[in-house]
Amino acid sequence: QVQLVESGGGSVQTGGSLKLSCTASGNTGCMGWFRQIPGKEREGVARMYSFRNNTWYIDSVKGRFYISQEYAKNTVYLEMNNLKPEDTATYFCVAQRGCDFDWRRPFVGFDYWGQGTQVTVSS
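Structure (tokenized):
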């Protein structure tokens, strides 16, 4: 069983930046990030969707968040800029065994989940 370990969460003020990292204990395919606000469902935020480094983002983070993956290191990053209070959430790293993608449902089919790291943005 592959384990995912996130790091890099913390507290920042509005407009600040954080960079999350996640390393898998074994080989994975495409990786991504979800987040969950207390009382709400988890939502996909960003993901890799091909081995050619294509990326997918939800609208609310486009232009502010950037995902990248180092396949040789089994590591994915999420650079978050211009953070807003509504970005406050627990962020979860996810990974697929391969790299399956359907643009109609871009955030389904992940096989492995991390434990989460807290991001808090204060106004």
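The chain has a mean pLDDT of 96. The first strand starts at residue 4 and ends at 7.
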